Amino acid sequence: MKSIKTLTLLIACAGFMTITTGFSQTKMVGGAPMYPSKDIVSNAVNSKDHTTLVAAVKAAGLVETLQGEGPFTVFAPTNSAFEKLPDGTVATLLKPENKAKLQGVLTYHVVAGKYNAKDLKKWIKKGDGMAELTTVNGDTLTAMMDKGMIMIKDGAGNVSTVTIADVNQSNGVIHVVDTVVLPSK
């Protein structure tokens, strides 16, 4: 009887540990686990859906920045998001002579601070359906909701949907998006 009580207690404790560790849940992105204990770049390099973004971050010289202390909120476009751009856009941006422009595009997807989906939804509600986010490049993005999904709109009116929210990192959070947003500057 004592061993049954011990087993019951262990099962109860294991269930509690699962609940409490859920706050730092490891999510799968691009077929790879995104560990909350790793930084943004260390996780992103393993996602097969973010190879274009990783190549762009490297070409722009932003690896050290995104491995830094942060915290950062990154709206991370997938490979298919980059494919939506006009033909030749990515190849042109990756050229060394366009490094500054590439940095501008990438830092337009980054907000200083760690803001999860709950924070964004709260700001959107408080802003009567819209919230302005100042990006690291100094331009603004507009966050809004559509059918329960967080949407991000750039200055030109391009809209991106957050497809995977709250991918926690040691130095911030990633929200996977389906469209590249472009700065006006």
UniProtKB/TrEMBL annotation:
Signal peptide: 1-24
Signal listed as a keyword: yes
UniProt keywords, alphabetically: Signal
Keyword Signal: yes
Name the UniProt record assigns to this protein: Fasciclin domain-containing protein
Superkingdom of origin: Bacteria
Domain FAS1: 37-181
Pfam families, sorted: Fasciclin
